[in-house]
């Protein structure tokens, strides 16, 4: 709330800015704009929170504009700069609804736009906002010819219509944000009934040759296809499709996005505006055979439809997200107007797209298309099993690419499919699929690295619980996976997962997911996985899963070795006494790999030792500690490779007394303690340092050089003959 008050105060400071170009006012304008931008950007993730204040913001900014004495003054420019920042935060649609659009504003806005200089690179927010304002004012129902006097209509002076046309033609060629506002202005201007017969043909004849080179004209025509009457624009649709077939947008992502919109809207304008009778609608019975026969009308389907759908399918695996999103929407809208036979082929083509292994882009585009098709009920019930198979894989999609992973967009889109499924289909048709998806959704909501994916899964769970009443333990899961409860990753791993693992439907799935995830590239996630496995081991038997962790310890992947060692350590620390004897024997080989000279791996070993120290099991400690004997580790190693072993030894040093105290009936005598200290001092003195500086010396890396043939040196013999621990 304090930010709202400060934003209002900043807008109020506009009245103190003069219209003259002074250094003091320049600094004040810069300070106001930067501070307002910082405050307003906090609501950009959720702009609905400030919608109730937008009306006041816009009104106060317009008041500052009216009190400005000059169109190019500092107050005038600063006011529209704040409005542009508001539009960037909450979108143009939320702002322009509060702009004054009375008839008297139209000539004044046209005059202000004409007095702007397109070459001025600093005032582009002013031009963009003025054109956006004019696009709303031009929607007035008053005939525009009434604004012109008889002298203007009979003389060489331009009329208001011609002046607006000149503004559109000028700013569609711009390269800043004023081009976007000019495209919206052109669409609403040429969609007016009194302009269609007068200037629409002229505008289209000038725009069509420029579609391949001018992004502004592509945007204007695409928006015009959206807002204009179908009868008005359909005569140009075939010509637009012919021009589209000749366009080459390779390497131009923004042009490709608007090209997809242009293509989809042109095809829709040629098809009859109807909703397919065969589509599934929740709560309604299946259509009769007569209805389906009436729906199989191919007369209004354009000849280029097959090429258009093929292009939309190809655009689903475009590398740009907005292109994939637009393709998915228009593919679903076109399918909604097709006969059932053709619609089934479209859905099958989308499902085949999921089998491509090119990149995550194709999987993401496929899930977006499935979500749009599902939301409209365009997937028949006999195709739902294939869709669910795709969704289950997509919910856990995570692939390494370089030093990080990709797939968060795929997982979120898969959650969108689940959400759409609960909205569109009756419970009787998706009951079995809800039970199949429930464990996977719980894994995503607990263990996904990205917050937006966890919350998307939570939204899907909420819809399944409320609409189907078939989600296992729906009420309790709904309370645990609240929107705000998922904000902290550690809370999801350590608290929510532990409570959900106690449910028989989720326990095994959660543990298996953690075992598969223990080789995650993110160190923080890897540690949380190990900690969560340690907690879940108190409620779930880990013996079936430990062999998988032990097998990963021998993997060539460093992350797998690191994660498995961490997980084993936390499991031992929690339930060491419940591990089967066969698995205990396999754990003896863990220490053999301790000499791998890698910092990440040694960090995992440190966590393992810490966890073992917290264990109350004598045998588990004895197995690991005895296997750390230098005779096992050092027999085939050079002195240089002993550094990790010595480092581990220095870490375990504080635990030796604890282990002796834990497993001996009586405490050691002072002489015995002195003997142990002497043994440790001998180990450190063999490296030439004092016992207190042992760990610091190992970290410094200032060791003497040895060759592989010096196994008989005094230092090596000393290390081989020294027993590390005494139980």
From TrEMBL:
Pfam families documented for this protein: ARM_TBCD (PF23579), ARM_TBCD_2nd (PF25767)
Alphabetical list of Gene3D superfamilies matching this protein: Leucine-rich Repeat Variant
Source domain of life: Eukaryota
GO CC, alphabetical: lateral plasma membrane
A GO biological-process term: adherens junction assembly
Annotated ranges, domain Tubulin-folding cofactor D ARM repeats: 294-474
InterPro entries: ARM-like (IPR011989), ARM-type_fold (IPR016024), ARM_TBCD_2nd (IPR058033), TBCD (IPR033162)
GO molecular function, one term: GTPase activator activity
UniProt-recorded name of the protein: Tubulin-folding cofactor D ARM repeats domain-containing protein
Lineage, uppermost ranks: Eukaryota, Metazoa, Ecdysozoa, Arthropoda, Chelicerata
């Amino acid at each position: 709330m304090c930010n709202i008050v400060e934003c209002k105060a900043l807008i109020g400071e506009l009245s103190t800015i003069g219209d003259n170009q002074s250094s003091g006012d320049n600094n004040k304008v810069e300070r106001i704009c930067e501070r307002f931008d910082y405050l307003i950007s906090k609501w950009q993730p959720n702009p609905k929170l400030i919608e109730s204040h937008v009306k006041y913001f816009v009104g106060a900014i317009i008041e500052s504009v009216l009190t400005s004495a000059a169109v190019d003054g500092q107050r005038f420019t600063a006011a529209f700069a704040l409005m542009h920042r508001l539009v960037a935060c909450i979108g143009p649609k939320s702002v322009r609804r509060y702009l004054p659009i009375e008839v008297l504003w139209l000539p004044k806005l046209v005059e202000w736009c004409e007095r702007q200089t397109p070459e001025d690179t600093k005032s582009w927010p002013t031009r963009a906002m003025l054109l956006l304002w004019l696009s709303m004012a031009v929607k007035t129902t008053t005939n525009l010819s009434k604004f012109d006097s008889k002298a203007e209509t009979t003389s060489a002076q331009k009329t208001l219509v011609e002046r607006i046309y000149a503004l559109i033609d000028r700013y569609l060629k711009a390269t800043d944000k004023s081009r976007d506002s000019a495209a919206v202005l052109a669409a609403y201007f040429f969609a007016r009934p009194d302009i269609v017969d007068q200037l629409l043909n002229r505008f289209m004849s000038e725009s069509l040759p420029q579609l391949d080179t001018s992004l502004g004209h592509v945007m204007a025509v695409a928006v015009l296809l959206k807002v204009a009457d179908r009868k008005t624009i359909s005569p140009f649709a075939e010509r637009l499709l012919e021009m589209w077939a000749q366009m080459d947008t390779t390497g131009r992502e923004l042009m490709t996005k608007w090209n997809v919109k242009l293509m989809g809207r042109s095809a829709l304008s040629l098809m009859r505006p109807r909703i397919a009778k065969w589509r599934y609608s929740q709560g309604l019975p299946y259509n009769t055979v007569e209805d389906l026969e009436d729906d199989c009308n191919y007369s209004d389907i354009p000849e280029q439809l097959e090429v258009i759908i093929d292009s939309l399918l190809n655009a689903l695996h475009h590398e740009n997200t907005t292109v994939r999103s637009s393709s998915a929407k228009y593919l679903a809208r076109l399918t909604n107007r097709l006969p059932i036979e053709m619609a089934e082929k479209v859905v099958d083509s989308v499902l085949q797209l999921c089998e491509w292994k090119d990149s995550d882009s194709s999987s993401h585009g496929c899930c977006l298309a499935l979500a749009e098709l599902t939301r409209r009920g365009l997937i028949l019930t006999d195709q739902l099993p294939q869709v669910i198979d795709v969704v289950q894989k997509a919910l856990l999609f995570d692939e390494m690419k370089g030093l990080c992973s990709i797939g968060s967009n795929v997982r979120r889109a898969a959650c969108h499919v689940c959400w759409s499924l609960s909205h569109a289909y009756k419970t009787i048709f998706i009951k079995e699929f809800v039970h199949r998806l429930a464990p996977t959704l719980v894994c995503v909501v607990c263990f996904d690295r990205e917050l937006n994916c966890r919350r998307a899964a939570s939204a899907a769970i909420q819809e399944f619980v409320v609409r189907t009443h078939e989600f296992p333990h729906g009420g309790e899961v709904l309370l645990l996976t609240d929107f705000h409860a998922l904000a902290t990753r550690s809370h999801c791993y350590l608290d929510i997962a532990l409570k959900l693992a106690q449910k028989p439907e989720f326990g095994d799935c959660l543990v298996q997911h953690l075992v598969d995830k223990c080789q995650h590239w993110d160190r923080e996630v890897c540690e949380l996985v190990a900690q969560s496995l340690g907690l879940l081991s108190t409620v779930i038997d880990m013996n079936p899963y430990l062999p998988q962790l032990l097998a990963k310890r021998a993997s060539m992947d460093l992350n797998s070795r690191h994660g498995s060692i961490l997980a084993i350590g936390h499991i031992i620390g929690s339930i060491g006494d419940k591990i089967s004897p066969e698995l205990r024997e396999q754990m003896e080989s863990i220490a053999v790999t301790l000499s791998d000279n890698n910092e990440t791996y040694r960090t995992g070993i440190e966590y393992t030792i810490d966890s073992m120290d917290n264990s109350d099991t004598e045998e588990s400690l004895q197995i690991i500690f005895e296997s750390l004997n230098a005779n096992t580790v050092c027999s085939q190693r050079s002195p240089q490779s002993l550094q990790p072993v010595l480092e581990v030894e220095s870490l375990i040093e504080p635990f030796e007394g604890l282990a002796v105290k834990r497993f001996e009936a009586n405490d050691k005598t002072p002489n015995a303690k002195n003997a142990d200290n002497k043994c440790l001092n001998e180990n450190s003195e063999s490296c030439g340092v004092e016992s207190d500086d042992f760990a610091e010396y190992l970290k410094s890396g200032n060791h003497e050089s040895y060759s592989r043939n010096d196994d008989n040196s005094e230092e090596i013999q000393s290390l081989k003959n020294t027993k590390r621990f005494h139980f």
